Amino acid sequence: MATLTQLRTLVTAIVQDTSFTSTIIDGYLNDGVNEIAAGMESSLGSFVTPPLPNLLTIDTIDTVTTAAYVSMPDEFGRDLRFVSSSLGVEIDIANSFIEFSESYPLMDTSGLVVEVIEYGGNLYYQGIPTAMEVLGTDDLNYTCIKDHTAAAADKPITGANYETYWSQIGSAGGTWAVDTAYTKAAPLTIHYFRLPVDMEDDDDTPDGIPTQFQKKLLVNYACKEIFSLIEDGIEGQQVNTAKHTGFFLSALRDLELSIPADGRSLILGADA
Questions:
Q1: What is the pLDDT of residues 75-131, one digit of tens each?
Q2: Cis? peptide before 145, omega within 30° of 0
Q3: pTM, rounded to two decimals
Q4: How far, in Å, CA of 256 to CA of 219, rounded?
Q5: Beta-carbon count within 10 A of 210 CB
């Protein structure tokens, strides 16, 4: 695999301009990884390039009982692919947020989660799951936020640890009882493509980019960006910019063709 040092050295040798420091070159190399991972215009049609398979992530996300959405994980990059309940039952992913909103205009349905959509970095779901509720010693409702078996130290609100397990919200609390198994709103299992991790140390390698494409993609990406600055204002064709842009696009096409066709489904301009 190509290390950050190797990639930087290749770019430096091609550019031969000391005003572009190691820090600047490293920034362009990381920009290349991030843009490729996010999706670029495909050379195969009116699509964006597919997600990088090496960035596929399986995670769990906790739902809440007080809203119809929660934030996606911080490392979420793109393309929610699969969702299932805590029992392993697949949950339908709506085709678009508009379709989801038309089906659930008020987004206030409660019960089992039957449909979801990722939009704007949030996971929206319907219905809104329920969690177990109890009455606290202050006669207010408390909703379970962490699965546990009740002990005196966890009792709301006299237990020293109660805030770990209960949140003061709800409307139908029952009587709290020791040794009872209390459960929070059921989590969901989600499959998505995460953000790549930037290269920082000299021996770091490009996250998510297959080995055989790393040099051709990233060296030419950095060079085309740098030469576009060097050649800015030059009359006529920007020769080096055009050359490295061509090399980059050729490598990008090869990368895309190496990814299974079922990943090529993100049409430019589609409402996701």
A1: 999 999 999 998 889 999 999 999 999 999 999 998 889 999 999 999 999 999 888
A2: no
A3: 0.82
A4: 18
A5: 16
